[in-house]
């Protein structure tokens, strides 16, 4: 039983089914009667109430005039237990049973109080109440003009249910007087969780409880306010939204937790909620719906704990003897660019590890043989095979052992992965830490400059010396600060330059991956650059290809670029070639390339050439340093040619619009434009009244899987070939009729809640 059901049952307890006369209606009838009496000037008559007496239970029978036929409210069993605990709180209304000749038989029928009689009958049947036990009754005169059905109907209709708030406050009173949650739950036949929920509701700000008592807010809204115990903040939120159309519970919860951090956040996972609370941090919880572990209310404390724990982990790694360690909450894609990666040997298994692995492998093979030839593997065996694979993989994943001399000049990165687990990347040598030989000194070679294009300064930032000279650097930056609500007049403004740079970084990496698997295109691209350089007298700057294959470092990039699909493909291909090439010996490398087959030579050419692709949008410098406006225009046009030749599709490359990557970075007009292009005008109109944050969240949900791309990531050739309508969504084939409508499932939840099905369908079809 959920909380709302419990409250509903409480309010319906012992109510009759059917029409109910309100207090005002009763008042009007009484008033009319009084006016009639006044008009007729009848004398006021004294009222004589029916007498009360105790009647033995075995003299009572249930009247057929009782109007209650349908079971509602508290069950007879629960009512019996309540009577057994506290006694009968309300007398039965009875009438004498008359014989055929009009004399009383000694029996009494019950037109009003049938459920109480049934509960008493159950107690008698259980031998918990004597058959002759006296029952308090109100005895109506058998000759009364009031019908028995009239008494039964009036008792059920004129009853006023207890307001839920009175119930919540009564629970508080019971607890204050020493009753536990379990005792209260047992007394009123509810679960302890429901008791906790009602006590939580009673703890909301008194001003809001008064509003709820006057039906100024719904029970669902009151439930939402319990997520944050700060009364001042509760009142502040209500003052903001009470005059707004959007007073949905989810909006209240969002506003009350907007300065908190979810327990599922990777920072919280890394630190641990227990350690956070032990450090004095407080948690917010929602008792009325799933809260995914709750919210951490002190982000500053959380960030400090993350920094301290990362620093402690770095100190542990420093014991290994590394020259430097860089600590960062996030590492950008290309963080190791310009650094030489050490080749380590996997550590051998110990005797115990080898024995454990052999045992796991033997069990795994035995289960495989047992299930050989079976169409369906039993679930328990399949689950066990999965466990065995995981355990063997843990043992097989060996730490790398590096040369001690190399460790002394190399460093490591300490960071977090996307799931909140510690990630340590060891064995990277900076150019300035490479050993300098005599030839280099004589030739004037500066290894500090050899890694051209690397604009990172690893020695910058806060540093500390530890463990015999290891330098621990803190390169972490704060994550995900909420963007302020921007002033938006509804007009389309150019995309923020930083966002354009990040988006084109995504496109540049995708182009690299596409060229890397397209040798013919790569060769054509190289020839185009060489021919241009040869036959053009003017500067050929602005090409999207750096033919010298200087690795282009992406200074502006989104946090998810490092873990994107194309990034993994590029890294995997690079690692495969690196493993095959005899690097470090020019003579051996020459011989290797000489005997390489033509297909492999072209594939290697394509791979190397891909690292020179530069399709980045950069700031134009009008003073001559950097790229010019004309050069930037030519670069982007050049990149479009390459995208067309390689068949680049940014949707297939894994990019999609999310709150972090796009929607929270642009004005509301841009968000509405994206939804309009992907889902149609009707869907966009459903979002145009939302605040920026909520609009971005709903837009992310609606755009997922739609194939929509911002104009920066679209291919111009598709617009030219397929027309403007197709170019709008570019990335997915969307039927025109489907694009101009949205199903009920696509509507935001708060727009369909409490709507009849036909109304929701009409709204979706607009």
Reconstruct the topology from this structure.
Elements: H1 3-12, H2 23-40, E1 52-56, E2 60-62, H3 76-86, E3 92-98, E4 104-112, H4 114-125, E5 134-139, H5 148-157, H6 164-176, H7 181-188, H8 192-202, H9 206-213, H10 219-225, H11 231-241, H12 249-257, E6 261-262, H13 266-271, H14 273-278, E7 283-284, E8 295-296, H15 299-318, E9 324-327, E10 340-341, E11 345-346, H16 351-371, H17 379-396, E12 400-401, H18 404-407, E13 411-416, E14 422-429, H19 438-443, H20 447-450, E15 462-466, E16 470-474, H21 497-516, H22 519-535, H23 565-580, H24 586-595, H25 598-610, H26 629-646, H27 668-679, H28 681-687, H29 692-703, H30 716-722, H31 724-729, H32 736-739, H33 749-752, H34 757-765
Parallel strand pairs: 2-4, 3-5, 9-13, 9-16
Antiparallel strand pairs: 1-5, 3-4, 6-8, 7-8, 10-14, 11-12, 13-14, 15-16
């Amino acid at each position: 039983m959920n909380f709302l059901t419990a409250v509903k049952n409480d309010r319906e307890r012992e109510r009759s089914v059917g029409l109910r006369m309100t207090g005002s209606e009763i008042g009007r009838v009484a008033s009319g009667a009084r006016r009639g009496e006044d008009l007729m000037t009848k004398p006021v008559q004294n009222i004589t109430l029916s007498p009360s007496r105790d009647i033995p239970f075995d003299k009572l029978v249930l009247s057929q005039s009782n109007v209650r036929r349908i079971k509602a409210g508290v069950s007879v069993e629960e009512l019996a237990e309540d009577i057994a605990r506290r006694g009968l709180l309300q007398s039965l209304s009875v009438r004498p049973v008359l014989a055929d000749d009009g004399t009383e038989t000694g029996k009494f029928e019950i037109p009003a109080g049938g459920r109480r009689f049934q509960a008493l009958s159950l107690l008698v049947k259980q031998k918990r109440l004597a058959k002759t036990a006296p029952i308090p009754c109100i005895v109506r005169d058998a000759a009364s003009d009031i019908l028995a059905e009239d008494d039964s109907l009036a008792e059920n209709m004129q009853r006023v249910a207890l307001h839920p708030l009175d119930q919540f406050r009564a629970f508080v009173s019971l607890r204050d007087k020493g009753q536990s949650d379990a005792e209260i739950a047992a007394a009123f036949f509810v679960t302890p969780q429901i008791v906790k929920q009602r006590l939580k509701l009673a703890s909301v700000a008194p001003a809001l409880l008064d509003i709820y008592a006057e039906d100024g807010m719904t029970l669902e809204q009151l439930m939402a306010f319990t997520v944050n115990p700060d009364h001042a903040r509760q009142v502040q939120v209500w003052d903001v939204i009470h005059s707004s159309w959007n007073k949905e519970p989810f909006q209240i919860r969002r506003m009350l937790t907007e300065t908190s951090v979810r327990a599922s956040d990777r920072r919280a996972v890394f630190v641990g909620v227990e350690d956070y609370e032990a450090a004095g941090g407080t948690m917010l919880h929602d008792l009325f719906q799933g809260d995914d572990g709750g919210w951490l209310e002190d982000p500053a404390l959380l960030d400090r704990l993350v920094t301290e724990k990362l620093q402690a982990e770095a100190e542990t790694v420093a014991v290994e003897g590394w020259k430097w360690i860089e600590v960062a909450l996030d590492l950008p894609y290309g963080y190791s660019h310009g650094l030489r990666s050490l080749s380590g040997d996997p550590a051998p298994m110990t005797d115990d590890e080898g024995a454990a692995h052999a045992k796991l492998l033997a069990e795994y093979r035995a289960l495989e043989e047992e299930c050989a030839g079976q169409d369906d593997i039993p679930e328990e065996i399949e689950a066990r095979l999965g466990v065995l694979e995981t355990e063997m993989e843990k043992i097989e994943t060996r730490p790398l052992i590096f040369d001690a001399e190399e460790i002394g000049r190399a460093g490591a990165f300490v960071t977090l992965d996307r799931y909140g687990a510690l990630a340590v990347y060891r064995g990277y040598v900076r150019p300035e830490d490479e050993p300098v030989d005599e030839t280099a000194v004589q030739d004037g070679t500066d290894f500090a400059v050899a890694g051209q294009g690397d604009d990172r300064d690893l020695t910058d930032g806060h540093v500390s010396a530890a463990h015999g000279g290891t330098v621990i650097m803190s390169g972490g930056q704060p994550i995900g600060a909420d963007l302020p609500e921007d002033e938006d007049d509804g007009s389309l403004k150019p995309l923020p330059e930083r966002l354009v740079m990040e988006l084109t970084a995504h496109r540049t990496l995708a182009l690299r991956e596409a060229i890397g698997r397209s040798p013919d295109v790569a060769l054509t691209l190289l020839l185009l650059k060489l021919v241009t350089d040869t036959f053009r007298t003017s500067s050929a700057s602005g090409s999207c290809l750096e033919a010298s294959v200087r690795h282009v470092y992406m200074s502006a990039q989104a946090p998810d670029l490092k873990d994107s699909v194309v990034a993994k493909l590029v890294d995997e291909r690079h690692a495969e070639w690196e493993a095959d090439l005899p690097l470090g010996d020019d003579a051996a490398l020459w011989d290797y390339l000489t005997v390489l087959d033509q297909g492999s030579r072209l594939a290697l050419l394509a791979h190397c050439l891909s690292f020179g692709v530069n399709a980045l949008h950069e700031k134009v410098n009008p003073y001559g340093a950097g790229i010019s406006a004309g050069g930037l225009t030519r670069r982007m046009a050049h990149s479009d040619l390459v995208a067309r030749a390689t068949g680049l599709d940014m949707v297939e490359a894994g990019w999609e619009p999310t709150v972090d990557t796009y929607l929270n970075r642009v004005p509301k007009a841009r968000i509405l434009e994206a939804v309009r292009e992907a889902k149609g005008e009707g869907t966009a109109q459903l979002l145009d009244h939302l605040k920026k944050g909520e609009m971005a969240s709903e837009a992310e949900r609606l755009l997922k899987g739609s194939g929509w791309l911002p104009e920066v990531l679209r291919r111009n050739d598709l617009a030219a070939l397929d027309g403007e309508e197709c170019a709008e969504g570019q990335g997915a084939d969307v039927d025109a009729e489907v694009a101009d409508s949205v199903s009920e499932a696509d509507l935001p939840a708060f727009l369909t809640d409490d709507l009849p099905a036909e109304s929701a369908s009409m709204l979706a079809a607009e």
